[in-house]
Amino acid sequence: MEDSNGSGRGPTVQDVAARAGVSISAVSRAFTPGASISKKTKERVFDAANALGYTPNLVARSLATHRSGIVGLVMGDIRNPYYPEVVDALSRRLATHGFRTMLTTVWGDITVDDVAPSLVQSRVDGAIIASIADADRLGELLYKNGAAVMLFNRSAATSDKLSSVRCENVEGGRSVANYLLDKGFSRLAYIAGVEHIYTTQEREAGFVGRLMERGVQLFAREHGDYTYKGGFDAALRLATADTRPEAIFCANDITAIGAIDGVRAAGLRVPEDISIVGFDDIELASWPPYGLTTVRQDKAALIESCVDVLVEQIRSGQRTRHIQLVPVSIVERTSVR
């Protein structure tokens, strides 16, 4: 079977250039993320490539440009509904800049040491790391291998080189403390997430710190593991205690969703018997069976900043450290009386 050029071989960059009426270098620029080329010329090249069935040789381009066009997304447990939303949005925004994504997960028995070799060998141009243990260690390794690195919604605990964008976790925790105290609650509990994850530490520090500033001790603390089951079990324990809390602040929304069901399983009502607040504002939080009052992260702002800074670092070759905090706000629904 002959190809469209009649030679029996696949279409080449020369074929695309001839069909589009442009130079070979223009075709190369059209398929290179961030290269200087007019929109009109780029469209002509893509139209010609589609008509011929041409796809660029990514390996050859990588060798020529010293870029792979790949950004690694390194996530923890993506069963948390927050992170599939984030992965989708990050991938879409990176695609607008011409980058493909390589999703890698680090959770359970999969460690940083398991995934680091594939990221390095794939010669990723950049990496976005979120919600994993040893984020600093992986980030430093990729940084030393020439990749631009952004920590998403966490800060570097030990590295002075890695850039990060995160929401105001501490301020979010403080705002929940003020919100519940101002409503007259005094017996307040906290259901934590994964203990070593930076977000749960910051949210708890803000919440408990503000309670103490206002002369209130944390009534109870449970471990929720950032999961529905963790939230359900923790809330069930709190709801069946001899003296139960009046309100519970959960480290994230999926924990809070589980907590609502846990309180109901104990034969109690939300919010009449126990009020519940989450953190993230995932889509499920707004569903009528839950009506979760929560701390909203501005995911759009987090994602826009994260991707745009990373892309600029990749294209410029500069690795100037960038730290950004994105404000949060409380969204009131029906889970607090």
Automatic annotation (TrEMBL):
SUPFAM superfamilies attached to this UniProt entry: lambda repressor-like DNA-binding domains, Periplasmic binding protein-like I
Keyword Signal: no
Protein name: HTH lacI-type domain-containing protein
Naturally occurring in which organism (per UniProt): Devosia geojensis
UniProt keywords, alphabetically: DNA-binding, Transcription, Transcription regulation
Highest taxon above the source species: Bacteria
SMART domains in the record: HTH_LACI
Keyword Transcription regulation: yes
GO molecular function: DNA-binding transcription factor activity; transcription cis-regulatory region binding
Pfam families: LacI, Peripla_BP_3
Positions of the HTH lacI-type domain: 11-65
